Amino acid sequence: MSAADNSALPAPHIGTSPSGPLGTIADVAGVTVGHCTLDQGVLQTGVTVIRPHQGDPYLDKVPAAASVINGFGKSIGLVQVDELGTLETPIALTNTFGVAALAQAQIRAAIRANPQIGREWSTVNPLVFECNDGYLNDIQALAVTERHFDDAFDNASTQVASGAVGAGRGMSCFDLKGGIGNASRVVDVAGSGYTVGALVLANFGRLPMLTIDGTPLGRVLAERARAARAARPAAEAAAADASVTKPEQGSIIMIVATDAPLDARQLKRLSLRAAAGLARTGSVYGHGSGDIALAFSTAYTVPHAADFITLPPLIADAHLDPLFRACADSIEQAIVDALWSAVSVTGRDGHRRLSLHDSLPDLAQLLKSKS
């Protein structure tokens, strides 16, 4: 089967719970996502913005919490999220050296909407996450600017693209082309239906580790790569071996949204279950990997100027297991989606990452043999 044939192959469905109608994080009502993609020769990067609702997140904050699974990262804003348990800006994703530009863009956008910020009112907490796309992208060019945040924000909609788009343009995953991935799951909790949606920025893993729905595809690819290296001159083979066996130095940002009524403490617990989905794909959260999960709920907002806050009835902790499973399944599915949706990309210094489909023309047969 050719790579072109593979592109029409549906990704395996992870778990038993159904996905929402869109199969993306936008299945959680009110959530929208926008991308701005830079595809300009050595510049292979971009910005992705997640809006938790269509209002002003500074005036109407949403409950949130994060789990740092491995802290090799350069994010902005996590300290206040951990302390106060709310988001007050959209969530921005980009490359490592673009974090400061996007934080400034978020601050300017908040001030435009609310000129009292930093004067009569408190300051604003920008929230920016990053992964290092320096293999494909000339990260030293500092190409990401405030304008790219604004463009991604303006592009936000419920039609959410996956693959080599937005912040995912230059990302690698298991030595293949990675990027943005999406998924959702609908579950029953004590007789009520709730949605869990996930968006990942996948930039982690070494090739032999890759596992999709329990199938160790990375081992197949690694064995084929070893056979190909054996036919090369000794010096080329040694260099290729060093590339394959070097330590994991990637990262993944995992954003989980839900319409289930949870408080920040419960969202902290939910975010931690993202690690289960990540581990199923083969990750061991390597020393050099920045693995961070953030979960938020759209079930209610926290008004900025309120003297007292009335929460809706919250789900009892004893009934959270369906949401925990949905989180793990949707994160694993979103990582698969990132690999499934990505196209091969060539960037800085001729570096190239092949897509999963281009790397495994017999992907359908390998997955079928597992079933």
UniProtKB/TrEMBL annotation:
InterPro entries: ArgJ-like_dom_sf (IPR016117), Peptidase_S58_DmpA (IPR005321). It comes from the Bacteria. Gene3D superfamilies: L-amino peptidase D-ALA esterase/amidase. It holds the Pfam family Peptidase_S58. GO terms for molecular function: aminopeptidase activity. Belongs to the peptidase S58 family. This is P1 family peptidase.
